[in-house]
Write a structure and sequence with these properties.
alpha+beta; endopeptidase fold (from Nostoc punctiforme)
Length: 193
């Protein structure tokens, strides 16, 4: 048993923003197909059981800090997320000291009085649909990091930039939708305000 413990711990850490289902028998997807994604919402128990226990390699944050500063007040939700930029990623955390991806989204919305579900899968199912051309600061952006299921969410800030809590060992940081890594994993946009 002891020899499997490190593998189990590594598997749980590597699931990133993967989610435990909120209720038994919850259906995957968003019910209406309003996003670009028709695949399943990830269940981290399946990932942990998989023999492919690796976190996808991708850009770490702060790739756009030097040339992007959102206007303060453009979106109260974005302002709330900016206030915690640089805080560490921790699976299952929803602030204020640490965050996972869906925890950051929930925290930023809660700070301005908007009730948002806790997990990426629930956020995906319950967000109001927004066409990519109509997205604005404060909208949530969903990604299929593994190319198979919705497993990551970020907060759009404008000009193609978003804030997110990317992965173990990282912090709440900027990323760009123009980056090939994120562009190829983009699944859709939703809104809670």
């Amino acid at each position: 048993m002891k020899r499997w413990l490190p593998l189990l711990i590594a598997g749980l850490m590597l699931t990133g923003c993967a989610n435990w289902p909120e209720e038994e028998g919850a259906s995957a997807g968003n019910g209406g197909g309003w996003l670009n994604w028709s695949g399943p919402v990830v269940d981290s128990r399946d990932v942990a059981r998989s023999s492919l226990l690796s976190w996808p390699s991708g850009p770490e944050g702060d790739e756009v800090d030097a040339d992007f500063t959102p206007r303060v007040g453009q979106s109260a939700v974005v302002d709330a997320a900016l206030a915690v930029k640089g805080r560490p990623y921790r699976l299952g955390a929803n602030g204020p000291g640490a965050f996972d991806c869906s925890g950051l989204i929930q925290f930023a919305h809660r700070e301005v009085g908007i009730d948002v579900p806790r997990t990426t899968s629930r956020q995906f199912r319950e967000a109001r649909p927004v066409q990519r051309d109509d997205m604005g600061p404060g909208d949530v952006i969903f990604f299929a990091v593994d190319g198979i299921s919705i497993s990551h969410v970020g907060l759009y800030a404008g000009d193609g930039r978003f804030l997110h809590a990317p992965s173990p060992g990282s912090t709440v940081s900027w990323a760009s939708l123009d980056n090939g890594y994120w562009a190829s994993r983009f699944a859709g946009v939703g809104r809670f305000r």
